[in-house]
Write a structure and sequence with these properties.
3-stranded parallel beta sheet
């Protein structure tokens, strides 16, 4: 599994880690470094999604949010919309 939040301390850029370990990655968790949903911080989801697309990743990408102070449906909708805008057009078909 690759988890954006847990990989924060890695010295190498996340896209490089994706390329290096793609054969081991079967699930991806996405969230901002502060535990909020994608789009509420400054994590580079565009680079992450491009790296996943480049290695032809076909597994799950799931939202893992720790800040649930808002409405759950709105958190999910906001995250999906943010990720869709960053997703390469040819990705994940």
């Amino acid at each position: 599994m690759f988890d954006t939040h847990n990989a924060v301390a890695e010295a190498d850029p996340h896209p490089e880690l994706i390329r290096r370990y793609c054969s081991y990655i079967k699930h991806v968790h996405v969230n901002e470094m502060d535990g909020r949903e994608p789009g509420k911080g400054d994590y580079d989801f565009d680079a992450l999604l491009n790296a996943l697309s480049a290695v032809k990743y076909s597994g799950w990408i799931s939202l893992e949010v720790f800040d649930l102070s808002g409405d759950g449906v709105e958190i999910a909708r906001s995250a999906i919309n943010h990720l869709k805008k960053d997703m390469p057009q040819e990705a994940f078909i």
